[in-house]
Amino acid sequence: MENWSVDQVCNWLRQRNLGELVPKFREEEVSGAALLALNDRMVQQLVKKIGHQAVLMDLIHKYQQQKSGLESLTYSCETASPKLPEVISGKNLKSFFARYKTLQWTSSYALPDFPYDVKCLLAEKKCPDHSMRIRIIEFLQADMTKYLQGSLYPNSQQYNIVVNALLQAYPFLDEDGNGFLLWKRALKDRFKYVRRPIEDDEQVLRNKCKFGHRRGQTRKSSFAENKPDDVQVQAEEEPVHLEGSAMDVHIKWLKQEYMKTQRNWKEVDNRMNVTIEIRRKMISDKAPLKDILRLFPFLRCPYQLFREFQLLTHTDIYKKTVEILEIYSENILSLYVVRNNPINIMLQENLKRHTEEDILKYMKMTAACLLLPDVFGDDSSLFAAVNEEVKVLTPVLEVKNPFNMNSCEFALYVEREELAQLDDCTMALAALVAAFHVFNIPRPKRIHRTLNFLESLVFEVRSPAPLPTQVKSRLEVPEHPSI
After folding, report:
1. What is the per-residue pLDDT for 45?
2. Residue 468: pLDDT band with limits 50, 70, 90
3. DSSP state of 128
4. Which of 39, 85, 100, 309 lies in disulfide reach of 434, CB 3.0 to 4.6 Å?
5. How far is Cα 137 from Cα 190, in angstroms, rounded to an integer?
6. pTM confidence score
7. Strand 384-386 and strand 396-400: pairing?
8. Quick one: which of 202, 419, 437, 215 has its CA closest to 308?
């Protein structure tokens, strides 16, 4: 940065969403060296808005801290082992420092200092209303952007860290045990809302180009950016399954709310409760899935899919799935039947690249999830399409780069159409099991044993479905948890 020209400094400002400062920086000829030499008084003269002043000073301070930290790290590495620079030279050096930076971010994150009225509400342990939730989310989003040095693309692990920090500090925000998914979804929506109008940020444009037209979908407008094609219908396309004007009002509100970025999730829950009878009737009458999703697009959201499952079965499918994978993953990976499986081989190669315990655990749970059909001798293509195209009509997972922490993708497909994007293997497995129940879809015989095993654990059957004989001879199955 010390050797940057004025143009490079201006580009750096745009990438950090500080494009408004570019004309003034050009006028004052602020180069990289001048930028690092700015003090508080100079920043106040250059920048009018207090918010921009704080962000700019924080970025400069973070850069100087990072530079000194990396210099000391490099020095200690060089003195500790003369061979290390050869190992982490070139491209490896870049990834090494990037990983160091990520670990530094996660280990140092602390919740922001909320405004006085928010702090008073939280101190009284009162659940916030919709407007107060939005304020909390706005502060979390701004704080994350500061930690990420202006980036508007946190990864899933960083979302998890922030939401976990919030719920650990204020446990009463975890309403009905679903708070984690609710707050995480709201935080993601906030980042989408902030990114949407940006047209001059290189990273945003690159990611819009990468993800904005996925799987052949075209964007109708910036307002409809995240709205699936089958939700964009005219008034005359209403199906005939409505029961009175009151039901019309609820369904119309749900469709309109789904188009928004900032959603009132509490009201969504209430209206989904009110409309469950008509929804279940449509499903039992074998109405086309597109008609169901057109009327109730929130079934595309994993949280609402899990909630629908809970309304039907009184079971928290996500919580149960976490427990199943945590208990069985190590045992599944130790089986002889999966030793030479391509998924297991891919896992072993990726385990060598990481040492962090939480990343290793995540990778093993992902592999165990994907290997389940092979353990039971079922058809794995009916369970998950790993790095390939979905070819079946029944619910199935699409998984891309399962062991790459930066580019892994999970999605649920039904009738060869993407129903929902998912954060990780646990959510993906829960969504797959839930989809069969929520949409009343018969289970294919060639995946029956795998699903039967999972459901017996989810529903806490007294005698859960047994593992195959060849598995039992090599694996003592732990007793499933009783909650």
Report:
1. 77
2. low
3. P
4. 309
5. 7
6. 0.52
7. parallel
8. 437
Q: Which of 91-100, 335-344, 466-475 reaches the highest mean pLDDT?
A: 335-344
User: What CA–CA distance (Å, rounded) separates 190 from 185?
Assistant: 9
Give the sign of the dihedral formed by CA 285, CA 286, CA 288, CA 292: positive
DSSP string covering 64-80? HHHHHHHHHHHHHHHHH
> What are the C-alpha distances in Å from 363 to residues 103, 107, 127, 433, 442?
17, 20, 35, 21, 30
User: Interhelix angle for 265-274 vs 179-195, to 10°?
Assistant: 120
CB-based contact 105:99 (threshold 8 Å): no
Of 3-7, 158-162, 279-283, the poorest mean pLDDT is in: 3-7
* pLDDT score at 86: 41
d(CA 434, CA 285): 19
Supply the pLDDT for residue 106.
Answer: 55
**Which residues fall within 8 angstroms of residue 468, CB to CB, at 6 or more apart?**
375, 376, 377, 449
C-alpha to C-alpha distance for 311 and 180, rounded to whole angstroms? 19
